[in-house]
Amino acid sequence: MTMTPEHRRIDAELQIDDIRGTEEERATFVVWCVRGPVRLGARFHRIRDIAVAIDLELTEILFHGHPVDELDPSHTALVTLQGAGTHHLASGEKTHDWKIIQGANPLP
Predict the structure, then answer these.
(1) What letter does residue 40 receive in the DSSP assignment?
(2) Distance (Å, rounded) from C-alpha 3 to C-alpha 40?
(3) If you ran DSSP here, which 8-state letter would residue 31 be given?
């Protein structure tokens, strides 16, 4: 059975609050953990409520300036994502919906 984005497991969600830096296929964001914990290596494959394809891997989490392996729900951190689709993520604005990326943590 082929896994389409709708059939993929979703156990990790991050809300994009601010963009801190971008390069081609790499970006750093301030995020809020909506669902998790979200672990290093998590793969994000969709933006909630938006029909665009992304394929991003979480490569770094800085919590209060210190590297950590996971981010718990309701916490904010600086994260680095690499892969296709960083250009689809814009800074959140209180007058607009923030973008929430959805994906899956690496299997143990």
Answers:
(1) T
(2) 22
(3) E
